[in-house]
Design a protein that fits this description.
This protein is of the alpha/beta class and 504 residues long. The chain has two domains: 250 residues, 3-Layer(aba) Sandwich (Aldehyde Dehydrogenase, Chain A, domain 1); 186 residues, Aldehyde Dehydrogenase, Chain A, domain 2 (3-Layer(aba) Sandwich), CATH 3.40.309.10. 38% of the residues lie in helices and 20% in strands. The chain has 17 helices and 20 strands. The strands form five sheets. A seven-stranded mixed β-sheet has the order 14-15-16-13-12-17-18, sandwiched between helices. Strands 9-8-7-10-11-19 form a six-stranded mixed β-sheet, sandwiched between helices. Helix 2 packs across helix 9. The chain is globular and about 85 Å long.
């Protein structure tokens, strides 16, 4: 087992920021507390990096780019495969670290961690097959194209999937030949630091993977850095607007994977038990803290009461508690602020006239978990389209259930609001399911399933859920520029001002 992972599992480890292939002491003395949300205890501190740290990390990334970008894609793929192998070797400990910092159940993190290497292997593989084109064009010319990396890129990653979302971005960026400066969420910055150290151990050149920790000021400094050529953010919509505006000012490309208010349409002919199990997972995995968490259930009136009652019963049966225990099915939310937001939205839903049908009993956990940021899985029925709970992202285990009678009504309900990231449709009638999929607004749509993710399946939203794509060829090419070279093959020369007829 890798020593660096073991070390970071110990409380209080603070090795600073990471750039140039090693841990560096921050230029600032200020630090940020990182708490274990299951107990509210401080797990460690990390530097609240300033502009000097960002400048040093970007400079290291530039130096690394001069090496990494010149490595043949076949050889880059070999490096990336070794990186994937090292992650695989440390998978169990990385799962423990993620659980310690995020509060996600160890069962969830083991399952998620097992898939992480796939993204690195996949992008390393397809980068080897990225081919240019050539054509003979009018006037005895040949045109050829090829792809080139952009340079150092900024990856701003969230706390809910610290490694998974980082790797989705980083694998594409590195396979394309870029170098990365990562600014993880201040709530869960530990595992990205470990991942950067593992990348260096895997043989990636110094400066290829760099991490600066800190809050909004750190992110602002990174986005403003002159030698950043791409910004890839997963975060809230308000943050996304600011970062996209900063990228626009500098005329650099960006990807924004932002918030959502995910609809789940349950048709009257759905496989009842399959839909119940699948949508329960959609709503409450990760304590409802994913951008595609099932948030508003839109259920046909003929099965509305039956489905709502069954969903509430299953929600109340979910075992919450110590996320390190194998028997725990759901851990806490990430912070006291998140817990308070859930509590406030529950109160508002009641004030709006919605009826709470699950999550009514108090949470009684033993010390030290009685101090954790826990929220019971909570289901509301009789939620109207103008209720806050129907419109606004909770980012916690609080959901609404609303009936519909006609397909057109289901579509209107699903398309209400400003988000458009993910959604699922549950029906045995594939024609109906497909028909509904054409009418709903969203970037990722599942039919008779939810939350499936794969490096080959593109991922991204529309409207307030952002723009750009993760996964697949779209992601790889986004991290590259396509260069066109036009070659004259005709003998002689043109002289426009001497009477030549050729122009353009």
């Amino acid at each position: 087992m890798n020593a660096i992972v073991e070390k970071f599992l110990k409380k209080g480890t603070n090795k600073g920021v990471f750039y140039g292939g090693t841990f560096q002491k921050s230029a600032r003395k200020e630090t940020i507390e990182v708490r274990n949300p299951a107990t509210s205890e401080i797990f460690t501190h990390v530097p609240d990096s300033g502009e000097d740290d960002v400048t040093a990390a970007v400079s290291a990334a530039r130096a690394g780019f001069e090496v990494w970008s010149r490595i043949d894609p076949i050889d880059r793929a070999r490096h990336l495969r070794k990186f994937a192998d090292i992650i695989s070797e440390n998978m169990a400990k990385l799962a423990l670290l993620e659980t310690e910092v995020t509060g996600r159940s160890i069962k969830e993190m083991r399952a998620q961690m097992a898939r992480i290497p796939e993204w690195i292997e996949y992008f390393g593989g397809i980068a080897m097959g990225l081919e240019g084109e050539s054509n003979v064009i009018k006037g005895d010319y040949v045109t050829m194209t090829h792809y080139e990396p952009l340079g150092p890129v900024a990856l701003l990653t969230p706390w809910n999937h610290p490694i998974l979302i980082l790797v989705k971005k980083m694998a594409a960026a590195l396979a394309a030949g870029n170098t990365c400066i990562i600014k993880p969420s201040e709530l869960a910055p530990v595992s990205p630091l470990v991942l950067a150290a593992l990348a260096t151990e895997a043989g990636l050149p110094d400066g290829v993977v760099n991490v600066v920790t800190g809050g909004p000021r750190t992110g602002e400094a990174l986005c403003a850095a002159e030698d950043i050529h791409y910004i890839d953010l997963t975060g809230g919509t308000s943050t996304g607007r600011k970062v996209a505006a900063k990228a626009g000012e500098r005329l650099i490309r960006s990807t924004m994977e932002l918030g959502g208010k995910t609809p789940i349409i349950i048709c009257e002919d759905a496989d009842f038990e399959g839909a119940l199990a699948g949508t329960l997972f959609a709503a409450f995995v990760a304590s409802g803290q994913t951008c595609v968490s099932g948030a508003r259930f839109i259920v046909h009136a003929s099965i509305y009461n039956r489905f709502t009652n069954a969903l509430a019963a299953r929600a109340d049966a979910i075992k919450i508690g110590d996320p390190m225990a194998d028997s725990t099915q759901m851990g806490p939310v990430i912070s006291k602020a998140s817990q308070d937001r859930c509590t406030r939205m529950i109160a508002q839903a009641k004030a709006d006239g919605a009826v709470q049908v699950s999550g009514l009993s108090p949470i009684n956990l033993e010390t030290p978990f009685d101090k954790g940021f826990y929220v019971r899985p909570t289901v509301f029925k009789e939620v109207k389209p103008d209720h806050e709970l129907f419109l606004e992202e909770v980012f916690g285990p609080v959901i609404s259930v609303t009936p519909y009678k006609k397909e057109s009504e289901a579509l209107d309900l699903a398309n209400t609001g400003t988000f458009g990231l993910g959604l699922s449709i549950w029906s045995r009638d594939i024609a109906r399911a497909h028909r509904l999929s054409l009418g709903v607004r969203g970037g990722v749509i599942w039919l008779n399933d939810h939350h499936r993710n794969d490096p080959r399946s593109v991922w991204g939203g529309v409207r307030d859920s952002g723009f750009g794509k993760e996964n697949g060829w779209d992601a790889l090419k986004a991290y590259m520029t396509k260069k066109s070279v036009i070659i004259r093959t005709e003998l002689g020369h043109d002289d426009w001002f001497g009477g030549s007829a050729r122009y353009g």
